[in-house]
Amino acid sequence: MLRCAASPLQRLISCSDPASLAGPGTGATCLDDARAALALITMWSIQTGKTLPAVPIEQLTARQLEDFWADDSMLDFRLAPPGPPRPPVSPAVSTANPAGRPFPPHSINQARNPKMHTTLIAVDIPSFGDRRRDADAQRFLRTHLYRHLQEAFEMSRLPWEACHREDRGDGALIVTPAEVRPTAALDPLAHHLTALLRRSNRLANELGRLRLRMAVHTGDIERDEHGVLGQPLTHLFRLLEAPAFKQHLAAADADLAMLVSQQLFQHAAASGLINAAAYRPISVRYKETRTCGYLWLPPVYCTGH
Fold it and tell me: In the chain, how many domains are there?
C-alpha cells in the first residue's frame, strides 16, 4: 500500500507496476495519479525546456529524475562548470534578480564568466535630502525619475528592461547590456531626458522640480551575490559626486547636467557620433580621483528681441 505522503510521480511509477492494480478500486486511483503526474511533468517541461528519456517511467533512474526536476536558476553561477554559457531554454524561465529587476539572458547574472565590458550610467537628484522635502515630495521625485528614465531610454532605443538597475535612494545606477553602443547613452539620451524634464518641470515649484546630474562611463565590471563591482563603477561615482560637477549644474540652473569620462568622450568624439563641440572639459578632484571629465549642458536658446 502506498503512503499518503507519496508524490504523484511516485504514485505514477507505482501504478505502472501491474501488481499495484490488483486491489479493488486501485485502477481509478492510479488513473487520477497518472493524470496529476502527467500534468506536473508537462508544466515543468514547458517552463524549463527539459525532457525525460523516452523509456517506461519505471525504468528512469534517480539521477535522471533529479536532473529533470532540478531548478537550475537556484544554482550560484560561481559553481557552474567552465565553458561557454548555455542559452536560455525558454522565455518562461525567470531572469529576475532578488530585488525583482530583470537581467537579460546574456547579462552578467547568468554568464559563466561574470566579467563584461559595458556602459555605466549613474544619476542623482540634487538636494534630495532638503528638509523641506518630506516623504511625499521625495516619493514624487523618485516616481518621476524612473518614469523619465524609462521613457528617455525607449526614445533613445536603449533596452531599459534588459538593463541591470540598482536604486540609490536619491538616484540610480544603470548597467546596459554589453552590446549597447556607449555613444547611444550620450547625446541622444541626454537630449531626450532634458525634453522630458523640461515638460514636467514647467509648472513645478522649487521642491517639486526634478533636476538631475548624470555621469556616464564605460569599462569592465563583475558581479557578486550583492550586485556589481569594479574600478569603472568607482570612477563613475567619483564623476557623479565631484564638487566641480555639482557647482556647474547649480550655476547653469539647468534641469540636467551630464559628465562623461575622458576615456568615453575621446572614443565617442573619434567615432564622429556625437557633437564634440557641445562638451567642455572640467577638472575632477574628488577623494583620491584626479582626472578630467567632459561636461554637457542643455543648449540655451536666446528668445529675446
Answer: 2
Q: Which three cell numbers stand for residue 173?
A: 545606477
- Tell me, yes or no, whether 25 and 131 share the same domain: no
Cα–Cα distances in angstroms (integers) from residue 227 to residues 99, 102, 164, 221, in the given order: 10, 13, 9, 10
Band of the pLDDT at 51, cuts 50, 70, 90?
A: confident
Q: Tell me how far apart the alpha carbons of residues 164 and 264 are, in angstroms, rounded to a whole number.
A: 20
Backbone φ, ψ for residue 293 (5° rounding): -120, 165
No. of H helices and E strands in the chain?
A: 8, 8
Three cell numbers, residue 118: 559595458
The string of DSSP letters for 91-108 reads TTS--B-TTS-B--TTST
Print burial letters for 69-96: b (CB count within 10 Å at least 16), e (below 16): eeeeeeeebeeeeeeeeeebeeeeeebe
- pLDDT digits 0-9 by tens, 60-116: 776 677 666 665 443 333 333 444 444 443 333 333 343 334 444 444 444 444 688
d(CA 166, CA 87): 25
Q: Which of 191, 184, 148 lies closest to 264, judged by CA?
A: 184
Match 563583475 to its residue by C-alpha cell. 222
Furthest CA-CA distance within the chain: 101
Q: Give me the domain span that covers residue 227.
A: 116-296
Question: Is 39 contained in some domain?
Answer: yes
Residues 35 and 153 both lie in one domain = no
Cβ contact 236:218 at 8 Å: no
Residue 62 shares a structural domain with residue 132: no
Beta partners for residue 167, in sequence order: 172
